[in-house]
Design goal:
By secondary structure, this protein is mainly alpha-helical. The protein is built from 12 helices and 4 strands; from the N terminus they run H-H-H-H-H-H-H-H-H-H-H-E-E-E-E-H. InterPro entries: Cobalamin_biosynth_CobD/CbiB.
Length: 319
């Protein structure tokens, strides 16, 4: 039933997304989880605590922010599952944990902005999806940033929650989303969060291990179906470069995407005014263009449909 739930949730989100009117009316699960994280950060991450005390407080915060949403999800899914067609209702809730449509929309907006408004418009559009300093980016860097974000968020925002929905039902999906949101908010190496967010960052690395590898494989498979993409080079890039990324997970989708498109992604980047050295993913061109963003989107959609079909086939086999 969990695999079927993941399949149906992917179909619901693919067809309808999460409407803006619903966000304005009641918010979004990530927003609700974010409020809980902010509350715990304010009350448990006090400047008077030592680094060890902050680390312990961060572990306690992680248990609360994963446990509370998961418990709520368990109660709701149990109640709904007892109803006729209850799995459809649970799938509608599960679809809110996925971002197939919104991710593609935000990345496409970067290509459109570059084509219609030039570099300044492209910088504004890419600043909505990446954390690096947009004013430091030339046009090729804006395009690379958009493609890197597409690659990483395909893993974190779609494959991983779908995987955990399939493995643990709505409880698994919600627990994953809570932990992943915590990493994005407090899992940074800053004076305030390096100790307090240590547990969130390490836990997020762990729970993203299977999905990041699966995402790389999906992109390699998709490259075999997309005209102009190179599946063999995508696989070579994964084998050569994935393990050299500073993240234990991001290198898999980034290297696969880079190799498939003949690009060199990642490398040195500026975050918050600081230069971050990273290994290149892929050994192709650095001069990416808006056309490459659109090629990356075709690869993304193909990989996404392969994943949906895989969940559907697995659900049918298990039935």
């Amino acid at each position: 039933m969990f695999v079927l739930l993941a399949f149906l949730s992917l179909l619901v989100e693919l067809g309808f997304g999460y409407p803006d009117r619903l966000v304005r009316a009641i918010g979004h699960p990530v927003i609700w989880i974010g409020h809980l994280i902010s509350f715990l950060d304010r009350h448990l991450n006090r400047a008077t605590l030592s680094d060890m005390q902050r680390r312990i407080s961060g572990v306690a915060a992680l248990i609360v922010l994963v446990g509370v949403p998961a418990a709520i999800a368990f109660a709701i899914s149990t109640a709904l599952s007892a109803l006729p067609f209850g799995i459809i209702l649970v799938a509608i809730l599960g679809s809110s944990l996925l971002s197939q449509r919104s991710l593609a929309s935000h990345v496409k907006a970067v290509a459109d902005a570059l084509d219609e408004g030039g570099l300044s418009a492209g910088r504004r559009a890419v600043s909505m999806i990446v954390g690096r300093d947009p004013d430091q980016l030339d046009e090729a860097a804006v395009c690379r940033a958009a493609i890197e974000s597409l690659s990483e968020n395909f893993s974190d925002g779609i494959v991983a929650p779908a995987f955990w929905l399939g493995a643990g039902g709505l409880v698994g999906g919600v627990a994953y989303k809570a932990a992943n949101t915590a990493d994005s908010m407090i899992g940074h190496r800053t004076p305030r969060h390096e100790a307090f967010g240590w547990a969130a960052a390490r836990f997020d690395d762990l729970i993203n291990l299977p999905a990041s590898r699966l995402t790389g494989l999906l992109l390699v498979a998709a490259a075999a179906l997309v005209p102009g993409a190179d599946p063999a080079n995508a696989w070579r890039s994964v084998l050569r470069d994935a393990g050299k990324h500073r993240s234990p997970n991001a290198g898999w989708p980034e290297s696969a995407m880079a190799g498939a498109l003949g690009l060199a992604l990642a490398g040195p980047r500026v975050y918050g005014g600081l230069l971050v050295q990273d290994h290149l993913m892929g050994n192709g061109r650095r001069e990416a263009t808006s056309a490459d963003i659109r090629r990356a989107l075709r690869l993304y959609w193909t990989a996404d449909l392969i994943m949906i079909a895989g969940f559907g086939l697995l659900a049918a086999m298990l039935r």
